[in-house]
Design a protein that fits this description.
Elements lengths: L1 H6 L1 H11 L1 H10 L5 E4 L5 H5 L3 E3 L12 H14 L1 H13 L5 H23 L11 H13 L5 E5 L4 H10 L6 E4 L7 H22 L5 H25 L6 H9 L7 H14 L1
Parallel strand pairs: 1-2, 1-3, 3-4
Length: 277
């Protein structure tokens, strides 16, 4: 596990960011006066366009990792040296680490994250959440019960799961405000009109919460970035299958070609075009 983590600096950076998320979110909220928006799904374009920050609530927890100072040192050093240098240094250290310090640290990180999820899951017993509810719903309820008060709002997307709908409703008492978007069950013109109407209301609500005017340019820039990230993730997945015969996939990665935009995200661009018309 230690070998994988130190050799893949994107994974290393993600792990450090996750573990140090609480302090960074605290600084954003208290010192920079930014709004934290709770969300389960990664549909966060409006959050960023409103200059707020999306938060999966468990990131506001303390994980109590042993040797947290090592995590803090990596985070601070990366600001000056870059993650590439940190990754190389850790890789060299891991080769001569006879005491398995990094391996023990990685195992402790995994144990603490899993332990926190399990604790939040079990916390829901005192709130009367049915024991046959799925693990995810119980854990998310526990997250909101403990840290929902730190959020300016929760961004809720309706999905087909009725239990998830009930989760949204039951966690509203822990959060300042709930923002809702009804996702149409079918791709029809009527469904599209309803979705656009909800997005109009969502945009207005975010502007009221943050005091930031959501402009077409801001939303378009964020949608384009999201499209590129989704496209690159698909290309990386194809590349990870080691299908070297797929020359087009490799060429896209090499040249930085963003490829085709995602149709779902383009609906957001359509939304703001309709707003300005």
């Amino acid at each position: 596990m230690a070998d994988e983590l130190v050799n893949f600096r994107s994974l290393l950076k993600l792990s450090v960011e996750f573990l140090n998320g609480r302090e960074k979110l605290r600084k954003l909220k208290i010192y920079e006066k930014k709004h934290l928006i709770g969300t389960v799904f990664p549909a966060t374009e409006f959050v960023f366009a409103a200059e707020a920050y999306p938060v999966f609530p468990i990131r506001m927890q303390k994980f109590g990792v042993k040797n947290q100072q090592i995590i803090n040192l990596m985070d601070t050093s990366a600001n000056f040296l870059g993650w590439k240098t940190i990754s190389k240094a850790l890789s060299l250290f891991n080769k001569i680490d006879n005491q398995n310090i990094l391996s023990k640290l990685m195992n402790d990180i995994i144990d603490k994250i899993n332990g926190q999820y399990n604790r939040l899951h079990d916390l829901t017993d005192q709130y009367g959440i049915p024991s046959d509810s799925c693990y995810g719903i119980r854990a998310i309820y526990g997250m909101n019960a403990e840290k929902g008060k730190n959020l300016s709002a929760n961004l809720n997307f309706s999905i087909r799961c009725s239990s998830f709908q009930k989760l949204y409703e039951s966690t509203q008492k822990f959060v300042n405000k709930g923002l809702w978007v009804e996702v149409p069950l079918r791709n029809t013109e009527k469904g599209k009109e309803m979705l656009v109407s909800d997005l109009h209301e969502l945009s207005d609500e975010f502007e009221k919460i943050t005091g930031v005017n959501i402009t077409n340019n801001a939303l378009q820039r964020i949608c384009q970035t999201t499209n590129q990230c989704k496209e690159y993730s698909s290309l990386h997945f194809c590349w990870s299958t080691r299908n070297r015969k797929n020359k087009e996939t490799y060429r896209h990665l090499r040249n930085g070609d963003p490829g085709r935009p995602d149709a779902g995200r383009d609906n957001l661009l359509y939304f703001h075009q309709s707003r300005s018309s």
